[in-house]
Amino acid sequence: MVKAIPRARSRRNVRIGSRRNIRIGSRKNVRRISISKGVIHVQSSFNNTIVTVTDIRGRVISWSSAGTCKFKNRRGGTPFAAQTATADAIRPVDIQRAEVMIKGPGLGRDAALRVIRRSGILLTFVQDVTPMPHNGCRPPKKRRM
Fold first, then answer.
1. CATH code for the domain of 101
2. Per-residue pLDDT averaged across 119-141, rounded?
3. Which of 43, 56, 66, 76 lies 20 to 30 Å from 82, alpha-carbon distance?
């Protein structure tokens, strides 16, 4: 018996029956992608950690964040959330050597790097690419009373 396709509910003048708003199946592919060398970008803020695996040319192969791993609000900035997100991003990729770029001031920086080291990937270098202002923004004008 053929399974019926669920219909999307219409909002305003959106066509009924459009399948754009419905996610069928899982977001991640289960097949493994094999590359010899890649770049792992870790962006760690106080509320979230985003891990992106790219090839040398910068094309995204896999990504994950603490938010997609069901960590919400402040819990997304914890080291455990970063650890989970990093493991989730690395899982579908079979990579031999990688460069790691770490950006941001968050707590997940070290935890993400620890997971990458433990996964058996040979690291060529680890670089901190946090943007630092040379002189910062112009301060607001002096307050007049």
1. 3.30.420.80
2. 92
3. 56
